[in-house]
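OP here, attaching both records as promised.
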Amino acid sequence: MGHGRFTWRVALLALVLVVSTGGIVGRLVYVQILHHQHYWLEAQAEHLDKRLVHSTRGAILDRNGFPLATSVDVFDVYIDRRAWRDDPLLAREVAFELAPLINDQPEPLFTRLLNESGGPVELIASSVDFSAGQSIESLRLAGVVVAGGTKRYYPEGDVASNLLGFLGRDHVGLAGVEADYDDVLGGTPGAIYFERDGGGRPIAFGRSRIEPGRPGADIRLTIDRYIQRLIETELDFQIRDHQASGGTIMVMDPTTGAILAMASRPSFRLSNLSLDNPDLNLYRNRAVTDLYEPGSVLKTMTMATALDLELVNPNTTYYDSGTVEKGGYTFKNWDFSAHGTQTMTQLLQKSLNTGAIWLSDQIGATRLYESIHRFGFGESTHSGLGGEAEGLMRTNKDSGWYPSDLATNSYGQGIAATPLQVITAFSSVINGGNLMRPYIVEEIDGPDSKRIFEPVIVRRAISEKTSATMVKMLNDVVDGVPAHRAQVKGYHVGGKTGTTLVSIPTGYALDSTLATFVGFAPAEDPAFVMLVKIDQPQDDPLGGIVAAPVFGRLAPQILSYLNVRPYDQPLVRSGQ
């Protein structure tokens, strides 16, 4: 009986051993064979420290392929403090050899090497020039790893600073195109690995390896470096000459919506950029972020609307008594003048507020606001530029709207837009009637693919016939007025001035204006449209005196650069 009980126990123990052994074997098969890769990677992770390394950043080029921002090869220097954790003398030796190569002093660097507040692995020097980086690499200093990197370089100097933007210390775009297309330009980062033991100490003769990343794509803009430099130089001169607070000049291809140049002030200089005490007020691109009331430039859209509805033609007349009563308010012309019977062409030539109000009565509130919306006011242009404002427009369908608003809106007050919205709307008036989506990126050329951006028609704003009539009328506004300051010898020019008071929380600053002119040339086939806005000129408040001459100075140079030959024949007038 005792012997049988013993035998049973032995059998049970054997069974347990068999089952246990089978479980162990099964677990070994699971770990070593079926999931070998997973557990191998986990083991590797236990022995490796990883630090991301930025890849070569893509270049930003102008429309002709000239670099505006590019990258030069440099080195980033990393330290692994665990190499001298128990040997301060080794850290001192490293500091004295490394310091002169990274433009540092040995003693402060030695103190920093021992300061573990930065963690075991730290970037100790960035953007070290290529020759110094190679020297560091050849020394093979303990705990020092050199990784290839890049530094931004601007071949055209400070041109297009607030358009291009800049990078932070971590090589990430913080403003402008650098920020808007950071994921495209930045590529995929690589990594640097440091080998350690289970206690976190460096392994003698352990591995340190660099895993390369994927370089970023090059971006070719629609910006032309020559035209960009031209308008920036002129804008800076005009601001000084008129003691203005700032301004904007933009040049666009009206047919495609491509932005050929864009400058605004105040701004910053890439060559004098400080990330320690940044002035955020200087970094925004005011051409797309700041709103203003376009003033009499909007009479162009009011007139185009009336023509498109076939309510008037260039020779239709109205009587200008100099004043209009509307919603309990009295409205007058900008110069308090009265001209009697006037044609629609004369209305634009003299920029008569009373005429714009008369047109708005013929059109009606609903139809006028619907048309202004078709011109793109009150919505983003979707240009792809960061921080773009949508604008402000109150219609007869909104609460708080009054009949007097229709009157002021008809000549460009009480409506707020960005300079980009204004030039885009004006382009649709002269390009055959299509509202184009403005764009600044023409091509993205990556390691494996290329993407080309084509012009996009948002919608039709007016008919082709109306656009052709408006071109002739706007040519009359410039070439049909003796000594108009936007005239260009040898070319037919069209355009419209605008002068508005600066908006303040309590209404308007009566002693401060924004002077604007939007013009195009040649009238027969516009090669470009230009917006000039000078903020708060101190010598003269009017767009016709301050802004129009800027167009007159710049247009001949741009036309010559674009190889647009002068015309010998006069343009047929809108009244002929």
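Record two, same layout:
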Amino acid sequence: MPRDREVGSLWIGGPLSWMEQLCLKSFVDKGQRISLFSYEDIPNVPAGVIRRDGREILDTDDFIKYEQKDSYALFADLFRLHMIHRCPGMIWIDTDVYCHRPMDYDDDYVMGFELPGEHRVNNAVLGLPAESDILARMLDFTADRFSIAPFLPRGRQERLRKARDAGKPVHVSQQPWGVWGPMMITHYVHELGLLGHVQPLNAFYPVTFRDRTKFLRDATIAEALLTDETTALHLWASNKKQIGTHHAGLPPPGSYLDQLVRSHGIRPELAPIKGRGRASFDGALIDHVDLENVATVADLTGEARSFVLALHHKYDCDIKLIDVNGRGEFETRQQPWIQPYSAFLIDHGVDENRIGIVRSKNELRPVDVLCNLKGFGDRRNVRGLKTFLERCLHADSRLFTDVRKGSGAFPFLKPFGANQIISEHVDDRTDVSRVVVSPRPPDPGVADESWDRIASELAGSDGFYRAGPRGHSFLYIPRSKGTLVVTFDNLDIAMNKRDDRRPWGYSLIESQDWSMLGVLAGGWTWYREPWVAAQFDDLRDSGFFDQFDHVVFYGASMGGYAACAFSPAAPGCDVVAISPQSTVDKSVVPWETRYKVVWDRDFTGPYGDASEVSQAAGRVYILYDPYEPLDAAHAGRFTHENVHHLRAPLLGHRLGSSLQQMGVLSSIILGALSGTLTKLEFYRALRARKDFPRYQRELFNRAVASGHTELARRLGNHILSRGDNPSLRRSLTALEDALDATKGSSRGTQRGRSGKSGP
């Protein structure tokens, strides 16, 4: 008799890729209860998956792995046995197992043959009676990490005995793959006569390991192998290597995996496959970007597609493709990689208006991230890189590049900044290092000379300019005594990303004849420099803020934190903060996984926790996207009565940029700065998002991800009836194709079942 069964799994290793997201969400979508155990926070677990601490099962920090393949599969083999023992009736599933239909097996024994011939049993799907003899034997066997398995080949057993007798026993991590997995369970199933409890091949492994790449080919190929016996379908994580190497870490278009992610509303571009074992793919470079914001990324060689796509979806940045040949020269003809690269980006949700082609040296501009993979210094002469380093790097840029041994690239790059080797591999029998280069910061205590000149001129004889350590500075520009706006900005952005080389909001504030105090940081420091706090103490004690009728502190993200945190220097001031952090103190907000660059900074003191100290302000406006989990968590920490939460759904962390593109930022900020902004006026202005492509796309994707496919279809058609949105149009077409395919498959299954149950 069928019974409700819960399944459980384990994840170690940071964020999930789309493959794990797909598999976990499939159980939720098919109505099967699923728990995911882990030993650390995982930021992108699909909704509906139950989160549980792995220490409930095994309280340990010893995560043993197969050293040869650098895989935690060994620890997972151990963990599943203890999970089954402690959670009677729960079925273990690997995170690469997809729910084709719910597993409602009545038998406590749930396992399947993985190869024709009905001999070898796999443990990717495993259920056992909690007090069974087979489970007890396997728990006993795995308790000794130097045990010699009786099911290993005789020659291997003999070598292990000799090593043990010589006083050098071989740890399980050095033994063959599967020694605590399929090899062990196969042995005990046969020894204890449990073959009658093993499900046939079609139950879990109709696509065998040898045929695993069929999941990467046309969807009909894998579909033809599924039967009515198929429940949990092993997708084989080994496919990750092929996907990462040849498909930019994304499911191949038209494949069975592509069909599955579309049907479950998974967005692979937001969670590309980054690695497999010791192999690391280009998308993994996203974890080495230590910048608060990325406004623009540029690719020189056409080899960083998955990395660039990941950057765009994480930071909502613009993309520049630099159209140069192998010598670093611009030609009249377009390089052959440009068009397919653009098509790839567009096919994966990038608005074509966000992609620019750089066709001449005069069009080169500073960018935040410059990609030179498999390019100059590796397969091309490193000297061809010189022009791009000079014109495209600013003080806070990052260059991701490959360096071939003997190319002379390391000495060439040295004057441009400090380099860090991320990974190493062998290409054509030569060592190649993947490197990130960070331009050297200015000498401590020495501000940029051109900024000194500009700031001094702006301050004039009636204002002041104060230069502090590590590029921090205060610039006061006096105008009227009615309103003072205190802005928080990054010096590098002001000097390298704005044509007028002015602090944020300079023209807007000037147009209102308001006075301005610009506080600039020398990098992503969150202003946690004692000198900055001392300046605010001095301005407060000298009565500087008291001379103005109205004082407003303004900032976004890092600056939003500072606007709230330093507001006690001007008690009663108003604060306008866009997507602010409340603090980056890991002891207070352990869930904040961004901004590693300041995790070692001191966030205590009278200007420390912004959510607490800002209660001294008058009105505190917090503008944020409630669907950005970390931003929403920070906003939720601002709980005092003076706080006004202004929600801007589905506009992202770079909310200011989205409002600017919608054409409403100036009016909202002016209202907030002047103290006239109300929630009603804010939400009226926010109506403009209905015609904003990003909002439309996110709203559509959220409907799909929630399983409301018919609503998503109607929404997509309604939006397109009002105007074109290329990215949404492609997503809608893909959704309709997937729905049509699902209906066709359902009709075919019904016909097949009716045929089997005939007279």
